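WARN retry 2 of 3 for item q-0093 after timeout on previous attempt; input resubmitted unchanged.
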Amino acid sequence: MRGAIAAGHPLTAEAGARVLAEGGSAVDACIAASFASWVSESMLSGPGAGGFFLVHDAASRRTRLADFFVSQPGLEGGKREFAEMQQVDVVFEPDSLQGFSIGEASCAVPGAPKGLEEVHRRFGKLPWRELVAPAIELARRGVEITPAQAFLHQILDPILRHNAHGRQVYETEGRRYQAGDVFRPLDLVGTLEQFAVEGAGALYGGELGRRLVAHIQSEGGRITLQDLERYRVVWRRLVRSRYRGCEFVSNPPPSSGGILVAYGLRLLDELGEGGAPGSTEALVRLVEVMREQTRARSGRGYSAALRRGGLAARLLADDSVRGGVERVRRSGSGAREPRSAKGTTHIAVVDSRGNAASLTCSLGSSSGVVIPGTGIHLNNMLGEEDLVVGTERPGERLTSMMAPSVVFAQGRPRLVLGSAGSVRLRGAIMQTVVNVIGQGLPVEEAVTRARVHLDEPIVQCEGGADVDSAALDGLERLGYEIARWRDLNVFFGGVQAVEVRSDGTLAAAGDPRRGGHGIVVE
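OK item q-0093 returned
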């Protein structure tokens, strides 16, 4: 086997699989797939996004994480009048309406092109231009809209077609894109070609950056040329935790997703077996661990501690874990968390040499801001209430829930995964790890298994063929307020995962909730 890849769209996965087939590394495949996602998943990712790239190098056995998430704009901005963010409502379900803040004022400094270039410089094997080429081909040829993508176009339509520039990209024949339509972002072709030739410098100090800033500032946004020119990728030390004899590693502070997943897995490890999978007892244990994660995140000083350092060591210390275990056993209550954006995608790759790459990128819910003539769609991270805590200075990273992760068994990758879904993504990742490592399920079954999410005070329970209605009845008899969903739903995240089996063979699973796809390259 040359490797395996899982991604949020079949064409994204195919771009990475093509690189693996040509002898590229896991990092090469992940970068090529990420560029392809700018076309096939343009409402979720793109040059206007931010993200995190976890890399495991098998030869050195070192694992690193590149932080290229968005930063607070405003470096040397001078005295200007800033616009207010615009409010739109998005309907996720007939009875689920959510407001979002969008527009130029919501746009933070993007990091995706800079991050991909920096990871390639350190770990890439194939030439940069070869990794951009599949995306250019896709943009020229066009991408047929899948049913999963059509649903995202439907729910995000008030954002995507909010203004004339957005309508030029996300409208066809006077309507939104639907399943079967061909999406062809021709303006993005030129942008991708500039990145292929000039690298990330085309945006961070080059002509693309000047066009971006001119448009943003003309509409009252905050991004300056200095914000782009001074943007840097940060290499961070990973969060590490144990679960069932394996080591879980993930994105560290100032992001909070990885540390909360690590904490949840430690609690589950200490609690031990909790009934048959899907039973009432197992569901109670899972829900109470989620409540404890929320309690930890909502605690006094948590946001400040993400910046100060030392939070992971304190939260994962034995005394802290013991306290959490006792609270789970007492079934204490926690605080409600805000619902947030869905505009995130993940790519997971393992190659034949045992190298692994795990990449999560996001536009937030997207801003509705498309830079004219470039196809660059910008993020709305400044409008995400759970990402901006009010203390960020210009140039400082915003926090994030994204958690690209790897589970190691005896020092080698056993499971490479990540998820979309904002506050739900940590539960999606944790449940997938439990399904594969704790219960021994194949990765394909682990990813598609129905999930739960604690949305205080309601336990959201996904539908599906594997759901035990009697177990949910048991939850209600114990006093839990539950909401029963009819089927799998994008609300519960979008996990993409690659499994290394005990015999060394590979398996890959894309989450059907997001139209994901997995490919094993023979």
